[in-house]
Amino acid sequence: MQFNYITERPYRGLTEDQIYEHGSFFTYPNSAFDAQLASADYNAYLDEAVLAEQVGFDGVGLNEHHGNPFCMGAVLNVEAAVLARITERVKIVLIGNPIPVSRNPLRLAEELAMIDLISRGRLVTGWVRGSGPEQFFNNINPAYNRELFEEGHDVIVQAWTRPGPWRYEGKHFHYRHVNPWALPFQKPIPPTIIPGFLSRETAQWAVAHSYPYLGLGGPLKPNADLSDFYADEFAARGLQAGPENFGHVVFVYVDETTERAQEIGRALLFAGGNANFAKAQHTLPAGYNSPAAIKRLASVPQGGWLGVTKERLDEEKVDIKAASLAESRRRTEANYQKMQENLQIVVGTPEQVTTKLKTVLRCLRPGMLFMMGPFGNVAHEDRRRSIRLLGQQVLPHLRAEAQRLDLTDMFQRAPGSVALTPGQPRAAVVDRDAIDKYHATALVA
Predict the structure, then answer these.
(1) What Å distances lie between residue 327 and 272, 299, 318, 320, CA to CA?
(2) 3-state class of 411 per DSSP?
(3) Percent of the chain topping pLDDT 70
(4) How confident is the model at residue 295 (pLDDT cuts 50, 70, 90)?
(5) Which residues neighbour 165 within 8 Å (Cβ) at sequence distance 6 or greater?
(6) Fold of 2-271+342-444
(7) In what helix (H) or strand (E) does residue 127 lie, and over which residues does it extend?
(8) What angle do CA 269, 273, 278 make, to 5 degrees?
(9) Which residues neighbour 437 within 8 Å (Cβ) at sequence distance 6 or greater?
(10) What does residue 5 show for φ and ψ, rounded to 5 degrees?
(11) Among 182, 376, 357, CA closest to 266
């Protein structure tokens, strides 16, 4: 099993009240940007990745967002290129490149091939459609988002695997000369993972390409439902899904005492966290999501991903900005407690965090686990202490549990390499009994 560290690389120069008063992270005026602070933070986040490698993590993750202080990773390939040179062992896991907003998949193919070469084969690519605000920021027609994503992906894979030169004429992309000189170190293409938040459409696309699916948080039961859906679709192709087909993200903070962990851990929902990423008109632009996807996202309890919450979808009826700061904080605090109950957020001492993350492993059986560090203005010494405690006092116990559960990852067993015997039902990919037992115990507590 693979254990990875990831952080949003937040800008640390704003207060929660400033974000609450503005109404979201996205569209916050860049007149508040402090280059000296951001420069120090960028370098500190790169140092965190090196520390994660030193204390035993298997990979470091990077994501990408544009035009907001929630995540300063506006061009994740730049950061990945730096990490390719300053780290030695860890996988560099991209979750991932938003193909539609890049406008040039051939350029992406060249950039990623160079990163894979510099790292000597440690790149794990990841493809995303990009959230609604990314379409707005990059002036992309959201109605063409999925078409751009799928065609762009095919251009990249062909550029890596089809000897050039050749010409490409598609619906959205046109190239007179495709002949990239730099090709990936890993053959035929680097390992690939597809992130999503309870998206059946994205899961179906991942199944069609035998790519693992990475669940971006969410409660246990909805994630288990999505894993079963993926496994059913995989079985329809005559293949058995296993842990190697799945990854999962958990927000994690560890400290030496429960009280300190709980206090600093609140930064995992700094200014509302993901649920306050963007306003409804930016989160769900017309044509971006199917009606079924919108309904599913709005029904997920607590901690909507990148602004997708019932409150956000109701903004036309309720003036969210008119809510008092006290009410905003109350709502965030309620979410903080509920997301801990759902094991979306895990905070505590090393022993407490180990117990909770073992439960996640037993219930969802992922082959990759991503531990997301705090958002907001957490001091760098606190962030680094959490990383050290995770590596030194939590990971050894999780590795033993993963071995006991036989949680293979995508590097130990290739997704799609296990065929189903005709007429035989697929094996379970999640432990429903463990999920029910956990929720029953939590309800009593």
Answers:
(1) 11, 22, 14, 10
(2) coil
(3) 92
(4) low
(5) 177, 178, 179
(6) TIM Barrel (3.20.20)
(7) strand 123-128
(8) 165
(9) none
(10) -105, 140
(11) 376
Q: What share of the chain is helix, strand, coil (3-state, %, to 5)?
A: 50, 15, 35
Task: Show me where the domains of the chain are located.
Answer: 2-271+342-444
User: pLDDT tens-digit profile of 16-50?
Assistant: 999 999 999 999 999 999 999 999 999 999 999 99
The DSSP line for 300-337 is: S-SS-GGG-SHHHHTTTTS-GGGS-HHHHHHHHHHHHH
Q: pLDDT tens digits, residue range 130-178? A: 888 999 898 999 999 999 999 999 999 999 999 999 999 999 999 999 9
Average pLDDT over residues 79-101: 97
Q: Is the pLDDT of residue 257 over 70?
A: yes
* Cβ–Cβ < 8 Å for 312, 280: yes
| Packing angle of the helix pair 350-364, 395-404 (nearest 10 deg) | 30
CB burial readout 88-103, b (16+ within 10 A) else e: eebbbbbbbbbbbbbe
Two tokens at 27?
């569209």
Mean residue pLDDT of the chain comes to 92
